[in-house]
Specification:
Strand order of the largest sheet: 2-1-3-4
Structural class: alpha+beta
CATH architecture of the largest domain: Up-down Bundle
CATH class of the largest domain: Mainly Alpha
Number of helices: 10
Radius of gyration: 17 Å
Distance between the termini: 25 Å
Shape: globular
Strand content: 5-15%
Number of strands: 4
Largest sheet: 4 strands, mixed
Order of helices and strands: EHEHEEHHHHHHHH
Mean pLDDT: 95
CATH topology of the largest domain: Glutathione S-transferase Yfyf (Class Pi), Chain A, domain 2
Helix content: 40-55%
Number of domains: 2
């Protein structure tokens, strides 16, 4: 059985939804980021980076990084609804889309939620937060174009965990209504994903945003 170390409102959402939708046996262990539990000696012995999520594999090994966890689970369990298999023509586009979200979009949110990490002067915080949202929207522009050209999902009519990952990131944005108005193709993709029962329930449980890391 897998063990997913998670925290509400972090990048653990995507692998948590993948495990639930695919009915992969697993248990959840919540790590309280607000109290600093992810920096505790106990958790650092599990994941030395102190990042959420972390997945304990059945053999005891630890896998971190949300996108990597999603790819691993989809591949090892052949969950084609989450990720095209290795020889599938859609595989390159899937990898490109998911890793773009994980690298070019996701990191920008940390500047919004943790501005103190990016300046020693607390007076800089408002400017850092404002710039963060500008960078998020700039990074989302190619996603909007892609979904407009091939949508409603990253792989056309075929949904994947890349779409769940996008929804996760958008759920962190403090002004989702305005964001959806600007990016109608992203709004359509997120609406379709969030309408699935497991995803809908997961979003309802996401009462706070922590981002994590």
């Amino acid at each position: 059985m897998y063990t997913l170390y998670f925290s509400t409102g972090t990048a653990s959402f995507a692998p948590q939804m993948l495990l639930a939708e695919a009915n992969v046996p697993h248990q959840l262990v919540e790590i309280d980021i607000a109290s600093g539990a992810h920096r505790s000696a106990e958790f650092l012995s599990i994941n030395p980076t102190g990042k959420i999520p972390a997945l304990r594999l059945p053999n005891g090994d630890i896998l971190s990084e949300s996108a990597a966890i999603c790819i691993y689970l989809a591949d090892i369990h052949k969950i084609s609804d989450a990720a095209p298999e290795l020889n599938d023509p859609d595989r390159p586009k899937f990898l490109m889309s998911l890793l773009y979200l994980a690298t070019s979009v996701q990191d920008q949110f940390k500047r919004f939620y943790y501005p103190e990490r990016y300046s020693k002067d607390p007076r800089h915080a408002p400017g850092i937060k404002s710039k963060s949202l500008e960078l998020v929207e700039l990074a989302l522009e190619p996603v909007e174009v892609l979904l407009g050209e091939c949508g409603p999902f990253h792989l056309g009519q075929r949904s994947s965990v890349a779409d769940t990952y996008l929804l996760m990131l958008i759920s962190w944005h403090p002004q989702q209504g305005e964001l959806f108005s600007r990016f109608p193709n992203i709004a359509r993709c997120c609406a379709l994903v969030s309408n699935r029962d497991v995803i809908k329930a997961g979003l309802e449980r996401q009462t706070k945003i922590s981002v994590g890391g």
